[in-house]
Amino acid sequence: MGLSIAEKIIKNHLVSGEMDKGTDIGIKIDQTLTQDATGTMAYLEFEAMGIDRVKTERSVAYIDHNTLQTGFENADDHRFIQTVCKKHGIYFSRPGNGICHQVHLERFSAPGKTLIGSDSHTPTGGGIGMLAIGAGGLDVAVAMGGGAYYITMPKIVNVQLSGKLSENVSAKDIILEVLRIMSVKGGVGKIVEYSGEGVKTLTVPQRATITNMGAELGATTSIFPSDENTLEFLKAQGREDVYIELQADEDAEYDEIIKIDLSTLEPLAACPHSPDNIKTVRELEGMEINQVCIGSCTNSSFTDLMKVAHILKGKTVADGVSLAIAPGSKQVLNMLAQNGALSDIIDAGARVLESACGPCIGMGQSPNSKGVSLRTFNRNFLGRSGTKDAEIYLVSPETAAVSALTGVFTDPRKYADGYEVEMPKAFLINDNMIIEPASVEEMDKIKVLRGPNIKEFPKTTELENDLSITCALKVEDNITTDHIMPAGAKILPLRSNIPAISEYCFTVCDPEFPARAKALSGSIIVGGQNYGQGSSREHAALAPLYLGVKIVLVKSFARIHRANLINAGIVPLEFINENDYDTIALGDHIAVENIRKQIEDGGDITVINKTKNLTYKTKCALTDRMKDIILSGGLLNYTMKG
Ligand code: MIC
Ligand code: SF4
Fold it and tell me: What does the longest C-alpha to C-alpha distance in the chain come to?
């Protein structure tokens, strides 16, 4: 039987297990990336492992999330990461150089290689044919130390693209269509692999928009073939030496097939508050809007912003609209500056932000109360923008730019004028904002600088055998990590301080949760389907850990968050009978007896609701390695035990 692209890369990197779907495999990791909001923790964990120098082919740390610097915290974190990188062999991309995924695609990505990153949108690299996966910080730390990365061998979904996009219909509309078809949980346990004649019509940045937002499907990753367009992109980045061709075998077998004719697509929008709540822009036309934000790792490439500049040229942003634009990287911003497009953008009245995540993670530009904001981003979870009652719609750069001018939701096809952005033959290459690590000889001289905001990774202990705990929170389906551990300008600066950030844990759902959980001597959280979707932030596991949560019992989990819970030593349980969910209430007293033995045996775990006098059967589905991690009290303890 032939292999798909993802299977070929996995085969080349397999260090443990067999490539049988649904079983655990370990793969060798060639590259890692971190960003600053998850990076401080990842590097503290790396330091705790006591390894001198990274063992990957390339590890890069980016500063892109916490660039508001409203206090000393972020700047201290940047300095810590910069010095840690210098010492331990990691490349450091300075603040201002751009968003991790955009810069990595431009300067470091390579077809056929494996990449894990402490950010859920790491699959952006799939646009160039990498096997690029989002992971928790601890997994990245272990990979930097030369350890394998463990995943469940995913099923492969083949999305066959035919035809060509019509003018002003965009790569964003393709992924919104895939989200409409598959939903935010449709990709769990799967890799989404693109093929077909339509692939040839898409450039690498367009493909990267699609693989980036594959994260919103809950997929392990998404991947495109590596072909002549890939070579063209790499040549223009002066990096054709890393090119290899990658195609699926003709007789590759897939678990699911989805067919999309690109010529039939029209502009789409993800409506509040979920990326799979899709409507056509036509249906929304005429709705008054207050804000437009263009940027993020989904849609801030040179070609995206050239299109935006073309639409804005010689016009003015509508009176009632605030337009903010954050170019994805210094390369993009500089090229727009040099060719004059930036001037068109400024002239139209856009508010030009630095090359960073910015409004995407609630770092500024929160909309007005009940404001309608059109964003080219990838997530529109409730409250993420910083304004709880705002209505966030995710759209293409074309829809965003045209609507910014009209002041109402507008179908950009009405403004089609035959303009096509050309892929540059040569991008502007200047890596002066990427600092190389010290040499092996020099590394010992480097002193790692820590500010007062940096607190140690919380210590964990071995799992107790008899748990007698209380239900401290009960939540619904599709809880995101933005509910569990919110971000934004006020909370993000605390990412390297677990005691302080824990005070905000779940406060979006229940402001009393942190105090209640702390007062109990051990607790359980109960949730619905797809619990923990969204970000890779391990803080969504570390904060509950710090607050004394021992078990999370839900109907189903999102992949990265479940892995983060295991890494933190919190037991992830799933209801076997989903109706049991209805019988647990806040404050119920829960007991799990002999849990160590139950975990070791690998069968169902019996959970007793003492208050209701009920017994629940739950499943844990842990591999032997995961069992050891949980029993040791988390991945750090497990790794240090050797
Ligand atoms: C996000 O888009 O939610 C983030 C912020 O980039 C996160 C990482 C984080 O929480 O630091 C992600 O996607 O993993
Ligand atoms: Fe940054 Fe937003 Fe991309 Fe996350 S989704 S990496 S916050 S731009």
Answer: 72
Counting from 1 in the atom list of ligand 1, the atom nearest the Cα of 537 is 10
**Do 496 and 37 contact (CB within 8 A), yes or no?**
no
Ligand 1 centroid distance, CA of 54 (Å): 23
What's the CA gap between 422 and 439, in Å, rounded? 40
Q: Is 190 exposed, middle or buried (0-12, 13-18, 19+ CB in 10 A)?
A: buried
The preferred substitution site among 35, 172, 360 for testing ligand 2, maximizing ligand atoms within 8 Å of CB, is 360
Q: Among all ligands shown, which has an atom nearest to the Cα of 384? A: 1
Joined tokens for residue 50: 């006591």
Ligand 1 centre and the CA of 278: distance in Å?
A: 22
Ligand nearest to the CA of 381: 1
Looking at the structure, do residues 258 and 274 belong to the same domain, yes or no?
no
Residues 151 and 286 in one domain: no
Query: What range does the domain containing 95 cover?
Result: 5-264
| CB-CB contact of 641 with 632 (8 Å) | yes
Per the structure block, which two tokens stand in for 330?
A: 């210094």
Q: How many residues does the chain have?
A: 642
As a whole number, mean pLDDT of residues 224-253 equals: 98
Cα distance between residue 254 and residue 340, in whole Å: 46
Q: How far apart are CA 482 and CA 475, in angstroms?
A: 13
The reply to whether 492 and 565 lie within a common domain is yes
Choose one of 222, 243, 264: the last residue of a domain. 264
Q: What does the pLDDT read at residue 203?
A: 98
Whether residue 642 has pLDDT greater than 80: no
Instruction: Say yes or no: 170 and 45 in one domain.
Output: yes
Q: Which of 101, 325, 536 to mutate to test the pocket of ligand 2 (most atoms within 8 A of CB)?
A: 101
pLDDT of residue 551: 98
Closest-lying ligand to the alpha carbon of 124? 2
Radius of gyration of the chain (CA): 24
Residues 390 and 503 in one domain: no
486 within some domain: yes
Verify cis geometry, omega within 30 degrees of 0, for the bond prior to 273. Answer: yes
pLDDT of 639 higher than 90: no
Looking at the structure of the chain, the number of domains it has is 3
pLDDT at 338 over 80: yes
**591 and 518 inside one domain:** yes
Compute, in angstroms, the gap from residue 249 CA to the centroid of ligand 2.
Answer: 34
Cβ < 6 Å from ligand 2: which residues?
Answer: 65, 99, 119, 121, 296-297, 357, 360-361, 378
* CATH classification of the domain holding 583: 3.20.19.10
Residues 398 and 528 occupy one common structural domain: no
| φ, ψ for residue 313, nearest 5 deg | -50, 125
For helices 204-212 and 228-236, what crossing angle results, to 10°?
100
From atom 1 of ligand 2, which residue's Cα is the shortest distance away? 357
The rounded mean pLDDT for the chain is 97
Nearest listed ligand to the Cα of residue 120: 1
Q: 78 alpha carbon to ligand 2 midpoint, in Å?
A: 17
As a whole number of angstroms, the distance between CA 634 and CA 538 comes to 12
* Mean pLDDT to the nearest integer, 223-242: 98
Domain-terminating residue out of 243, 264, 285: 264
Closest CA to 232 of 207, 210, 213: 207
**Residue 455, domain member (yes or no):** no
Are residues 317 and 253 both part of a single domain?
A: no
> 131 C-alpha vs ligand 1 centroid, how far in Å?
19
Give residue-wise pLDDT tens across range 600-620. 999 999 999 999 999 999 999
Task: Using pLDDT thresholds of 50, 70 and 90, give the confidence band for residue 5.
Answer: very high
